Amino acid sequence: MAESLSLPSNGSARTDTSADDARRDEQAVSKANESIAIRPKRGKLTLLSRRIYNALLYHAQRAGVDQPSYTILLSELIDDARFNSNNTELLKTHIRDMQATTIEWHTSIGEQRRWTSTQLLGTVHIHERGRGSPCSITWSYPEPIRERLVKPAHYTKVFLEISAQMRTYAAAVLYELGARYLTSPGRLTMREDLIWWASVLTGRSDIESVDYRILHRDTIKKALIELDTLNDSFRMEVVEHKRGRKVEELQFRVIPKAQPTLQGLEQGGKNVFDLQLVERLVVIGFKRADAQDLYASTDEGALRAAVDLVEARQKNATLPPLDSPAAYLRDALRKGYAGQGGQGASVAREEPATAEPSLEEKMQRLRDEWEGQRIQQARTAFDAMGETERQAHIARFEAECLGELLGPVARSWQKQGVHSPVARSTFFRWLAGVLWPAPVTDSALLAFALERKG
């Protein structure tokens, strides 16, 4: 049976005082530049192991380089790593992964070159003193790299709160790389081959060959979108180096974002992710992930004009209904007639949706419509509940989901709760799953479709 700690649930952990919030916002680790783009030579690194590693390093640096080992309360590590679990067996698994992961450390001093192969962590002890007593954790670093980790000569400031918002390993790596190269003259990262980048961005040591199209689609593109969404300081773009038509090496360019004006700061800061626009895309018919991808890869003004166009087209009773509003929107973006006046607007009104949705797309749309009805039913059921039952659902939602929400969504929920225009749909989608946990069957979808036609 998994051991556990007596810790507050996520719901109560989110009710920190303003002083605690300030402390978390200011937590920064001085991460040695050599330790940012870690390419494991054996084993595998995960997003959570990277968070744990940064949190341990933060506390080691506060204690100083003269100590052979470091000790803190285990609850403090779990909080600073945003672990969101009190399962010590899971924590031990990630610690074992770090101890089993071999990394290479390259150092250059003048003409001298030094290569070191070592573990990420040395010996780790978890002290459990019995019921009612706090648990603690003691750890050390391999001696050859301990001083360079705890007191690095060349380092990058990595803020734990920003790093903790990243939801994929690749985005966490790119955040740290971007922070490192943001102040460099060319703002370009190192130039390496595809296998090197695939290993660094996935934390895997067993990669022997890479299909760049898959790496870009499944890892790089999603990580760049996530970074742009969650980080106010900069965004990044990939730089491809080709031999002929084949991509062989990559770099990343760091692009600073315009800082918020004083007026913007007084109004609560710059929200780089317009969640209401994303919600409008979802209503049109996009899957949420596709809506976020489209938002992040499209000029916001052009996208907003295209959404306005589609919504106006759908309200026009003199024209036949659109078979696929999402395809119509993509067509408007591709041909550039959204938001134009005069002749462009006339062309837009007459332009048909050229892409006939596939059977799979039609089924997915039907599932989305069914889910939308369930969400509305959940909202109605919630309004009919007593106050005690409503608060119980809210507390459970915060305990189970709040730590996994995008930063802007979580902050909006904390301020406005179920009245938040950007977070309430997430809550009612979750509530629908709680009230009706069984997955929808094909027969239920068929009945739903027939009912709508009738």
TrEMBL record:
Name assigned to this protein: Replication initiation protein
InterPro entries: Initiator_Rep_WH1, WH-like_DNA-bd_sf, WH_DNA-bd_sf
Tree of life domain: Bacteria
Family: Belongs to the initiator RepB protein family.
Disordered as annotated region, ranges: 1-35, 340-359
Pfam families noted in UniProt: Rep3_N
Stretches with biased composition (Polar residues): 1-11
Span of domain Initiator Rep protein WH1: 30-177
